[in-house]
Design brief:
single chain; alpha/beta; Rossmann fold; 2 domains; nine-stranded mixed β-sheet; two-stranded antiparallel sheet; KaiC-like_dom; ATP binding; Circ_KaiC_arc; P-loop_NTPase; nucleotide-binding
Length: 368
Amino acid sequence: MSDDDWFEDALEGEDASDADEETDGDEEWTEFPRDDDPSDTPESADSDGPPDGSAPAAEQPGEVPSEADGTATRDDAEDDSLFDEGFGSALQDVETPTIDDEDGGDGPVAGPEGFDDLDFVLEGSDEPDFDEEIDSELPRLDLGIDGLDRMIQGGVPERSLIVAMGSAGTGKTTFGLQFLHHGLEQGERAVFITLEESRDRVINSATEKGYAFDEYVADGQLAVVDVDPIEMANSLASIRNELPALVEEFDASRLVLDSVSLLEMMYEDRAKRRNEIYDFSRSLKEAGVTALLTSEASEETPYASRYGIVEYLTDAVFVLQYVRPDDFRETRLAIEIQKIRDANHSREKKPYEITNEGISVYQQANLF
């Protein structure tokens, strides 16, 4: 395959095949002691002054200025004071949401199967409501992953560069397939570039999950392109120059590259690797698509990519990781949103499962 027709040949091959809510009420705080109220002063202040007759001590931090020095006292605003009672009293009557259990009573939230010995609780009153959309001029879109979309207020800004980062078996490829499937269902066009699997393997994996990728390919709505990582590395300069025009010609709005780690490992020199990946990520942004990269996590920490590059070049980072309890009885999966530029989002770690239908995130459950 030449440098100039890698994408066209792939498409031809397809044609040939078939803040906490801000309160408006009077939130009340603990009242500072007043100079004229002996009940709020320390016992040492019961006398008129120091026993040795020396001058009174300097005003302590936190004391309220008196009328003598020309400033208003708290008595002037006694009725409107914000310091009448403590946090405990102010929050005493706050209702905590519950979910009815099977018997009709209030009970804890049931977690996913296999998570029975973990503590799952509802989001408390201190958790922002991420279902509420925010006012923004930036067009936004949903990822199509149940539970995860509700952790993002308003959705991910369009034309963002996203990375799903995790170790083997955490569902990175499934994340990408589900991301494209959601857009295809809404009539969007998409491109899936795989450096790991064959084109047929990707389509079969998607159809097994109920995603009609074979039909989307036959209709010309989806392009699945398998590229050898060595070939792509050797041709990366021409590919990144052609990619924006090719994506625009195909009219794609979503793109997945699985996985960028295989492309990174083609460069032994660290500086060259960083420059090439930086230029490639910039070409994806210029292509005008919302692009998702999958990346292997570092062996030392799940919060960094294998080469420590893509998390700094992307607009959003999703961390998929294993959670192993001390008893080692069962391995669980948890997801965390490390960052999303221009979007508010939950920073909690949430459990998820990979099922025959894709990834399901249990947004209402807390994982301890």
